[in-house]
């Protein structure tokens, strides 16, 4: 399964080095808003509202004029903070385009990944685009509108000094983000298989960090030997760390991402319609190409499309 970390006790110098290498900010602000058209400098055209889809938007959301969108802004290139502290990324641009298609603007707010679904059910947020894999377990409490496909990938330090085999992580120190399906996979799949094979397990069911940037830092610093994350995130981290990391093995457990929405409301129909319209008019493809993640494009958006 794919998805989307305890914070490591690294020296300040190590954190600064890793963060600079990633070209990401270490802003501690808990929220940041962005609205209107896609990111500055984007070649993506402005999106025209569709009155028939706008008519599906619940009255309370329509009257506010905006969609409050939760995103864990530590998961580049899908959602992260730029040098000015603005939340940017593939998911952010898609959220803005969806909002525009519905005659709204997007208010994208930073949130811890494992707090987002509870925030949706508590009506703190209208929706979330934060690299959530669509799973049956999540569909039990929220609606998921599919819009992308990703799998789990594995990264190690360049040159693979520990000779890590991506298919056998037993006994290895593995970094993951808290609340992701990678974290669940270590606990529910990888470690039970290690026990069955008579091998040592992944310590602590993986070293879990609240932010994906901290997962990457833990690997670069040598605190951990391996990191697991969604395929576009691993690809981006390898590129941005300028040769400090490398991807090993193949991408596994490919599954769809889903926009997270309150269960059973007309907003789900509106958002699914907006995603479909953006696919049809070329906006969807343009946004994915802008962020270099077009390999994850899907042809059709559905509601609750999980297979497991």
CATH 4th-level superfamily of the largest domain = Periplasmic binding protein-like II
Task: Describe the strand arrangement of the main beta sheet, using strand numbers.
Answer: 9-8-10-7-11
Q: How many strand units?
A: 11
Unreliable residue stretches: 5-41
Task: Please state roughly what percent of the residues sit in beta strands, choosing from under 5%, 5-15%, 15-25%, 25-35%, 35-45% or over 45%.
Answer: 15-25%
- The number of distinct helices, counting runs of at least 4 residues, comes to 11
Cα-based radius of gyration, to the nearest Å:
19 Å
Total domain count: 2
Helix content range? 25-40%
Q: What is the arithmetic mean of pLDDT?
A: 87
Structural class: alpha/beta
CATH topology of the largest domain: D-Maltodextrin-Binding Protein, domain 2
Q: Report how far the terminal alpha carbons are from each other.
A: 8 Å
- CATH domain class of the largest domain: Alpha Beta
Report the sheet with the most strands, covering strand number, pairing sense and barrel closure. 5 strands, mixed
Keywords: Signal
InterPro entries: Solute-binding_3/MltF_N
Pfam families: SBP_bac_3
Organism: Kitasatospora kazusensis
């Amino acid at each position: 399964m794919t998805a989307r970390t305890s914070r490591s006790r690294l020296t300040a110098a190590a954190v600064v080095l890793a963060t600079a290498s990633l070209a990401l900010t270490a802003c501690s602000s808990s929220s940041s808003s962005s609205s209107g058209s896609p990111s500055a400098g984007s070649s993506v055209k402005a999106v025209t509202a569709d009155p028939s889809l706008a008519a599906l938007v619940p009255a309370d959301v329509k009257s506010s004029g905006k969609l409050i969108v939760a995103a864990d802004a530590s998961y580049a290139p899908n959602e992260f903070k730029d040098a000015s502290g603005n939340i940017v990324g593939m998911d952010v641009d898609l959220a803005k385009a969806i909002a525009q298609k519905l005659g709204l603007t997007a208010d994208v707010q930073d949130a811890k990944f494992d707090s987002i679904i509870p925030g949706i059910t508590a009506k703190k947020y209208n929706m979330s685009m934060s690299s959530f894999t669509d799973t049956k377990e999540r569909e039990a409490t929220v609606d998921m509108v599919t819009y992308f496909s990703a799998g789990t990938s594995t990264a190690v330090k360049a040159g693979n000094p520990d000779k890590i085999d991506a298919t056998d992580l037993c006994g290895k120190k593995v970094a993951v983000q808290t609340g992701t399906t990678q974290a669940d996979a270590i606990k529910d799949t990888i470690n039970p298989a290690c026990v069955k094979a008579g091998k040592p397990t992944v310590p602590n069911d993986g070293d879990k960090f609240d932010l994906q940037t901290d997962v990457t830092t833990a690997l670069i610093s040598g605190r951990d030997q391996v990191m697991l994350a969604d395929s576009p995130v691993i690809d981006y981290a390898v590129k941005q760390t300028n040769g400090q990391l490398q991807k090993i093995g193949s991408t596994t457990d490919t599954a769809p991402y889903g926009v997270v929405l309150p269960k059973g409301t007309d907003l789900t129909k509106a958002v699914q319609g907006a995603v479909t319209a953006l696919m049809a008019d070329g906006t969807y493809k343009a946004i994915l190409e802008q962020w270099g993640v077009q390999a994850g494009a899907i042809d059709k958006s559905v509601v609750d499309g999980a297979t497991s």
